Amino acid sequence: MPLRYRSWILLILALAVLVTSGSTSAKSGRKPRRHADDVTVGRGSASGSALPPGSGVGAPTRQSGPGQQPTGASTLVLYDTSGPYGWLGELYGMMAANLVSHFGSWTAHPVNTYTLGELSRYTGVVYIGSTYDEPLPVAFLSDVAGSSKPVVWAYDNIWQLTSHVPDFAIKYGWNWSGFDTTPVNGVLYKGELLKRYVANAAGIMNYSTVGFTAQAPAWAMRTDGTSFPWAVRSNNLTYIGENPLAFIGEGDRYLAFADLLFDALAPTAIERHRALVRIEDVGPTSDPVKLRAIADYLFSRKVPFSVGVFPRWRDPLGFYNGGVAETIVLKNAPTVVAALKYMQQKGGTIIEHGWTHQYRNISNPYGGTSGDDFEFYRVTENADHSLTYVGPVPEDSTAWANNRFQQAAKDFRAASLSVPSIFEFPHYAGSAIDYAAVAKAFSARYERSLYFRGVLSGSPIDHSRFAGQQFPFVVRDVYGSLVLPENLGAIEPDPWFIFPARLPAEIVDDARRARVVRDGFASFFFHPFLDLSYLKATVEGIQTAGYTFVSPSQALGGTTFSTQTAIQSGTSGGGSGSSNAGSGRSDDDDDDDDDDDDGDDDRKKDKKDKRND
């Protein structure tokens, strides 16, 4: 498994806490037995723009963002906050806000601050019930029951609505019976069996009745072959019986939730299925022969692609060089530079994958070497080879992050390459400050991302409490960046300690599952040191599944690159990529004081170490 895929098996732990009733709550009446397991676990492999992170105590709790389509839908996102684990609600609120940004602008705030009539100002509302018996305002319950605006309600506290609405079962055609904790390992949606983490025992709501006036668009599939509705829909209300933002993985039932949002926010959306492929961890030591072979193959399949490049390779501890420190910059690797330009001519877009893809002269968490280590976040390795995300690097700041962007720009220009306008965090990890800096310096990110407590609420950032999120489509996340999706992971032919292999067939199978999202992507990445046959099997399998590969620019809705025209016509075109004008990055800044000389070695280290990301 690549480090990126492994490191995204993140656990977020919370308890479903019983809270006391407030004067504005309508939670009296029948309610289900508490979750059989008090622990609700969210896995980060399964991210509008918020106000500036860390704006301090007393900052507004209402945040808004423009979304990917500013003229599209407007969505109100509501989340829970009560109890000692109420902080989880903000994380789920961020994840929901990220998803709905695909459709247009959004506003997010705690459900307990909802005011009467607020729903009428939006296209629809999404409420994530993550705290058992969170006191819901009567105003919210009344508006849900009295409005024709679409409401998507997930998991807890539906019993407060059924108690509030007289003859709920008659009006809506269904009613709940209680949380079902029998093992469920899949969700059937649109004829496709989506994955579900079977050890998730928090329970899924079951039903005493689902009448002919209600629909069950998705079904929870038990391990014994029986089933019950996973989601029900009638009138303006779509109810999902569990938290679809917990335990997210590739090919997961999270995809059903993402597609159900279309019914509420963009019901006339045209169905299309696009794909992205990124060649990963390319640097000054990459093998130019393999890079050219990849470009030739993808060009032959009329597949535009991207290339994640870090322009400076460092081995400050001599991990691969007999204990002798070594640095190689891109300008001193002319055959790699030539290969990158060749890739551009064949339809490639260069993505900035950090400056050095490692941090200073220490292990972070491996040998301190480019491609192996994290650059923007401190991480340690545990005895079982899992990872602990410690927090931001000690010198983390906007100025520090910008300096790394500026030094990378300097190295790209020195190699006669345009400065990329799209960024990808090494190992998909940075601090809240780093994400905000990227939002100002680049036109987009291309990755999975981390979201920290405090970013949405405006309270001080808590880097110890975070969620990881992948996307099935392009979003504008709470940091303010457009984010290109990567939702299928990487090809890994061999297992690595506790982490299983991931072969092309698995990626293609998950791509087929992702087709349930009516305007979604199949997006994966490939390390160039692997045999080309793995890339061929994956690309052709995804094409056979009905996807069309597009460039990052096309995915973002921009004009096609000249190389795309070349692909379509079968002739060689000009180079792609763009400078990052207006980003504040320049060539004038001094090098980081932890970096040694540029080096003069054009040796290509075909690093097949399993720690490579």
Describe the structure.
With 613 residues, this protein is an alpha/beta fold. Helix content is 23%, strand content 25%. The strands form eight sheets. It has a ten-stranded mixed β-sheet, covered by helices on one side. Strands 15, 16, 19, 28 and 29 form a five-stranded parallel β-sheet that branches. The radius of gyration is 24 Å and the shape is globular.
pLDDT < 50 stretches: 1-28, 36-60, 559-584, 586-593, 595-613
Strand content: 15-25%
- Could you give the distance between the termini? 9 Å
Major sheet description:
10 strands, mixed
The helix-and-strand class reads alpha/beta
Task: Compute the average pLDDT.
Answer: 85
What strand line-up does the widest sheet have?
A: 3-5-4-6-7-14-13-12-9-10
Percentage of helical residues? 10-25%
**Integer-rounded radius of gyration:** 24 Å
Count of alpha and pi helical runs: 14
CA-based shape: globular
Please tally the β strands and state the result.
Answer: 29
